[in-house]
Design a protein that fits this description.
The protein is α+β, with helices and mostly antiparallel strands. It has helices at residues 3-23, 94-111, 140-146, 153-173; strands spanning 45-53, 56-61, 75-81, 84-85, 115-123, 129-135, 138-139, 151-152. The protein folds into 2 domains: 3-33; 45-159, OB fold (Dihydrolipoamide Acetyltransferase, E2P). The chain has a 5-stranded mixed β-barrel. Strands 4-8 form a two-stranded antiparallel sheet. Strand 1 (45-53) and strand 2 (56-61) form a beta hairpin. The protein is globular.
Length: 176
């Protein structure tokens, strides 16, 4: 079967699946993972309505093509600040929890109830949007790292990798 036939057959299958789901809503159909696509909402920014911790916020926005309150509902999205890692509020030690609270308060003070722009938007494994957050021309992700409220996730990851390689190399080269 050539590519055109396969594509046609697949589109026919999709049409009938959708058709039967509408006609017979209680009928279940087997949908395979490979038949689905990841949906990344076309969110370019929004008002910050919650700061969960130093690297996670919630924004409220309208989805395109709507831009006015009368046109569409107001949606909320959880956003993880890309490439940074802040202390966890429910971290294992009291010290980490205190640092997490400071990190959260610093982020809250800057952007809570402010309109922010999202750059390089993607979806992360827990279903949150993953993005670089900008406010008044300031890269908030970078600001959090520069002001020591978070660490650069990529640098941290790279440091761990280098450390592991160094340990393996040392063990291999200097066996007693």
């Amino acid at each position: 079967m050539d590519k055109k036939c396969k594509k046609y057959k697949k589109s026919i299958k999709s049409f009938f699946t959708l058709f039967f789901c509408i006609l017979v809503p209680n009928q279940s159909f087997l949908i395979e993972w490979k038949e689905t696509k990841l949906f990344i909402p076309p969110v370019k920014g929004g008002q910050v309505i919650k700061v969960y911790d130093g690297d996670t916020i919630t924004i409220a926005t309208y989805l395109p093509p709507f831009s006015f309150p009368n046109d569409a509902p107001l949606y909320r999205f959880r956003v993880r600040l890309a490439e940074i890692d802040a202390p966890e509020l429910n971290g294992p030690t009291q010290k980490e929890q205190q640092l997490a609270k400071l990190s959260q308060q610093a982020l809250e003070k800057i952007i809570l109830h402010e309109y922010v722009f999202l750059k390089n938007v993607n979806m992360e494994k827990y279903g949150r949007l993953l993005a670089t957050v900008e406010w008044n021309g300031i890269n908030i992700n970078k600001w959090m790292v520069e002001n020591e409220f978070a660490t650069n996730f990529l640098k941290k990851s790279l440091q761990k990798s280098v450390s592991k390689v160094r340990k393996k190399f040392t063990k291999k080269c200097f066996k007693g």
